Amino acid sequence: MRTLLAPISSLLAGVALLLLGHGLLNTLLTLRGVAEGYSTGMVGLLMSGYFAGFLIGTWLAPSLIRRVGHIRTFAFYAGVATVVVLLHVLIVNPWVWLALRLLYGVALVTLYMVIESWLNAQVSGEKRGQVFALYMAVNLGALAAAQQLLSLDSPMAFTLFALSSMLICAALMPITLTRQAQPVQPEMPPTDLLQLARIAPLPLMGAGISGFSLGGFWGLAPVYASQVGFDAAGVGLLMSVTILGGAVLQWPIGLFSDKHERRVVMLWVVAIAALLALVVAPLTASPLLLGLMFIWGGLAFSIYSIAVAQMVDQLHPDEILSGSSGLLLANGFGAALGPVVAGGLMHLAGPIALPLFFAASLGVLALYSFWRPRRVMDLVTEPPGHFTPMLRTSPTVMELMPDAPEGVAQEPANEEELDDMAIPEPEQRTGS
């Protein structure tokens, strides 16, 4: 483990500090917006602005990294993010905040991309899976821990904004002091969403609805928690519990999905998550609500990972990176739309609308998983894809995945070609 950590310790320290500041800011802005009298619809729009910036940054970041290098790019956008955080408290205006959230999203995805492409360059193929798991654990741990910082002061004070800004700025220190050589930023493979929709429609749908649902969670769950009776510390607790559920329960769900047909696993996961959301809807602040959100988080955070694993099953090795980028794009579009819809519904119906939003969106995915004809069989069976707990970050994180391609390229098949193929033997898994 020491040999594994030594080359990447500065990168992991940087991302931990970055996500402590980022996780604090996301929840803090929601609480401050509500305290300033912003409607839930406006709060949702602000959160959508962040995800829209995230998508824009995905296209802008690679060229800047190639032009000025990883360290300079990280330093530039960490400075941008730090300034943006402080501008939120200096200029309290929803439309200014919307522009700031867009810029912040561009900055954050670029910071992710710097760290993830650097991590990928530092590890060999046989250690890639261990590094990926460690990186995701740091991500989820930092996001969960960040929620507990909310209890340090009121969202109306300057303190928490200053703390968020300092944490993001502190991420510069381990990154700029590293002695590791900067890698060359590779060209990203092209993404063909139409072809991906023909070959792997259920993973694409799963990634999109996962973003739609979790976008609503990240953007509106703090508002929901405060409206059902939690104080600021309780809001942080609900967020932390849900994120920890996503960290803990993804592993057993993933092991189960590796041994059974993923389409059926997807169906059960989203159906149970939808039913749990219906049970949560009438509840107020209580230990029962926290317990149910822990389980819901484990299920909801697993959907994107199941979608990626099923996509790996259905694509040839040379198509995995471009297919992963397609899932990330679908997830990002869903995440950008989700907070707007959830915020609008909460503005009309109150806090009960958020769990009902979860139930409706995940229910649609459950129905699609049940209805989808089983016309596409898994193409990669030696070895099959593996479930990997993950968060949606930047496209470069896909290169760290254990199933990232290293083999010979082949032409992908499509549904029409697969319709003429023989039905797989019972021991083979089928997907949709």
Structural commentary:
With 432 residues, the chain is mainly α. A two-stranded antiparallel sheet has the order 1-2. Helix 3 packs antiparallel against helix 4 and helix 13 runs antiparallel to helix 14. The longest helix is centred in the C-terminal third of the chain and has 30 residues. The two termini are 39 Å apart.
Write the layout of secondary structure elements.
Layout: H1 2-5, H2 9-35, H3 40-68, H4 70-90, H5 94-122, H6 128-147, H7 159-170, H8 172-177, H9 193-199, H10 201-227, H11 232-259, H12 262-280, H13 287-314, H14 320-349, H15 353-371, E1 376-377, H16 415-419, E2 430-431
Helix pairs in contact: 2-5, 2-6, 2-7, 2-10, 3-4, 3-5, 3-10, 3-14, 4-5, 4-7, 6-11, 9-10, 10-11, 10-13, 10-14, 10-15, 11-12, 11-13, 12-13, 12-15, 13-14
